[in-house]
Write a structure and sequence with these properties.
Distance between the termini: 11 Å
Largest sheet: 7 strands, parallel
CATH superfamily of the largest domain: Glycogen Phosphorylase B
Structural class: alpha/beta
Number of domains: 2
Low-confidence stretches: none
Mean pLDDT: 90
Helix content: 25-40%
Number of strands: 15
Strand content: 15-25%
Amino acid sequence: MRLACFITPHGFGHAARSCAVLAEFKALLPELAIDLYTTVPEWFFADSLPGVKFDYFPVACDIGLVQRGPLEEDIPASVAALDRFWLAAPIAGLAEQLRARQTTLVLCDIAPLGLAAAAQAGIPSVLLENFTWEWIYRGYDNAALHRHADRLAALFELADLRIQCTPCCQPLAGAVSVPPISRRGRLGREATRRRLQLASEEKLVLVSLGGVDGGLDFLPALASRTPATFLLLGQEELGRLPANVRRLPKHSPFFHPDPIAAADLVLGKTGYSTVAEVYAAGTPFLCLSRAAFRESAVLERFVESNPPSRVVDGTMLSGPEAPDVVQQLLAAPAGASMRPNGATEAARWIGRLHSRYKH
């Protein structure tokens, strides 16, 4: 079997989710050959899938939304990028490549280009999603985005199997629903804390904004007033910071689920993979609301349904009450861990589809 994966490059979260499913699927089908079509960096997949061989094709397979920063979208730039992308979308060339490589199944994490190429090549396809861009675009009062939503709605309908991950934005009849999907940790909490050189009683706040730089104006004041170590993930350009703030680059020696499990609190935005990995670890989550992004309301409801986690407006972190809120969450007990991981169930559904078509 050769599986072609088209993964949106809108942040690293969708790549993380796809890697979780690929790891489980590879365990079920050791002879599986994997082709990756995306502009998410190749090192991300090498880190997330150790020992798994794959071929990587740097294909811009999706636009999603253009970001001004980690918590703000640029709608005019998004429309312009979508116009350019679909005017020159290489559907026919990708279909020919899929046939030439004897691809037997296509998996798309909200990247509709892969569904279009699979349909043209006559290859069955799977859509993995907790939202689709069609649904996101209709949440904005913008006629040009709505025209793109109409186009994408037809493409998303091409999938032979639709797997919806909890928390799902728009549950649909006929789709398969699975629990939250997350990558599995490797080191364990105590081993990770030792590697981070943390004292046993030291409190750790992990700050993750989905790999997008910026949005940390609140941090110097908050960290200076909070007796804890703050660990920033994926921030490349920062000014002078308090002594209790450390930084890990995007490509760090730590596997992202491990610092999440080692932390006493995660502070971050409502990205799917962060929400799912925090949920799996049972770590308290101080979640920054993204009111303008339609997915966020669904993720935020899920976060708040798993106390002691809570959702706050980003401006609160710059206010006088922020240290007290952080301290309350640092003192809260961790939630349940070892929760069901939807990656296993998703892999089994993909395997069933492959078995149906392989002859």
